[in-house]
Amino acid sequence: MLQKPEPLRTIGSYWEASVPVVKQDRQLIGNALFDVAVIGAGFAGLSAALKLAQAGVSVCVLESEHVGYGASGRNGGFCCLGGTKLDERQLIRKFGLEEARRFVAYQVAGINLVRHRLETWGVDADCHSNGEIYLAHRPKDLSDLKAHAAFLKESFGIRAGILNKDELESQGYGGPDFHGGLHMPYGFALNPMKYVLALAAKVRAAGGKIFGKSAVSAVSRDGDRWRMETEHGFVRAKTVILAGNGYAREDAPKWLHGRTLPVMSSVQVTRPLSDAELSAQGWTSETMAADTRILLHYFRLLPDRRFLFGTRGGIFENAASLSAMHNRARADFKAMFPAWAGVETEYSWYGHVCLSRNLLPFVGPVPKMEGVYAAMGWHGSGVAMASISGEKLAGLILGNLRPEDLPLPLQKPFARFPVAAFRKLYLQGAYWYYGYKDR
Ligand SMILES: Cc1cc2nc3c(=O)[nH]c(=O)nc-3n(C[C@H](O)[C@H](O)[C@H](O)COP(=O)(O)OP(=O)(O)OC[C@H]3O[C@@H](n4cnc5c(N)ncnc54)[C@H](O)[C@@H]3O)c2cc1C
Predict the structure, then answer these.
(1) Can you count the helices (H) and strands (E) in the chain?
(2) Helix (H) or strand (E) holding 37
(3) Ligand 1 contacts CB of residue 74 (under 6 A)
(4) Domains of the chain (ranges plus CATH)?
(5) 283 C-alpha to ligand 1 centroid (Å)
(6) What is the Å distance from ligand 1's center to 245 Cα?
(7) Which pLDDT tens digit goes with each residue over 257-286?
């Protein structure tokens, strides 16, 4: 059933370079029977597999490439609130205050789960940052941040701090584009590759099986089980977890067709900056940061003094578009951190996040596919959300939880995008519109 591991498909990320080795699990060769098969070895799939394996369930994870090949090994490492493109006011309007509160509490629990895992597993994932700061990119945005802080306190009991421009500069958040800030007292930063590799190691240690280079090309009914087809074999399982997120194939299973929108996000990491360079820019803070643009930039000073700078990607993945994406991100970086305009970018990569039509994640049973569950759609903030949601999904499968025990915003199965073939065009239109609004 097994053969020697195939070579690793790398993307040239700083995270890959920061770990001694990324393990290539063996490919599935032949046929295998498991209670549960998970499609996708990222935070969501592995978190579900870990919980199930620890409960004594026979579980395998089928992964197209290797652990962390998807967004979980490519992200900015902000373990923070989020998971939806709806803001808190929209959540309240749609679901009511109590459900919105439950959803925010769930996000906080996700952050705490990741922190707890790293601490109890003794994993040094290069963590830093106490909370996250949102930086007003226009003077007028500071008053919006102040109003938002008051709203967060009143509605959610969140005590967000406000900093004016002088306070930002004195606390090491210097930049011509930053006119004030809101400090959110939740979250921390980590090296996502170290976290996802540790998570996979725990799955293996608990008895879960991970197959690399085993892309699932079809999911079909086979008696009382589901059958997952891969290149050199198949797995039959009573229960299936869809955890492919922005890398999910639309035909495995067919239910996924037209229901997700993969969107690119890109990251650049500079060479290490000297003390003189840091003070020339006035940026010395280790707090993770993002600006207030709708098409936001996210950035942080890494523990080794490199600077990580992330922003949205383009629409298409051909060489010309990717090069344009890289150049645009680099131009934004130079404009926001002019003192570092000559500092080389040593690593540059991108990955897929997953959007849904209602701009919310889905965690639960897939309609009309008994035994099939999904945990996907984190809208670019999945370090904490995918981790806790994978674990909760395992709780549903084990019978420890009911779908209605989850916050309401997570419960609705993804709807199809209208005229799904035009999804990328909608995205292009949204980028133009939001780019205009961000000015
Ligand atoms: C550049 C970038 C920066 C980001 N920054 C942040 C951040 O700072 N903070 C934050 O919270 N979130 C961030 N995110 C989002 C976050 O990384 C994701 O939401 C999260 O990692 C998703 O985890 P997941 O397990 O759901 O999916 P993924 O990690 O994407 O894993 C899905 C896996 O499924 C596999 N797969 C898919 N289909 C199949 C199939 N048919 N057969 C077999 N395998 C399959 C893929 O190969 C992949 O490995 C970022 C994402 C990107 C791309």
Answers:
(1) 11, 18
(2) strand 30-39
(3) yes
(4) 23-75+193-260+357-421 (3.50.50.60), 132-185+272-343 (3.30.9.10)
(5) 30
(6) 6
(7) 999 999 999 999 999 999 999 999 999 999
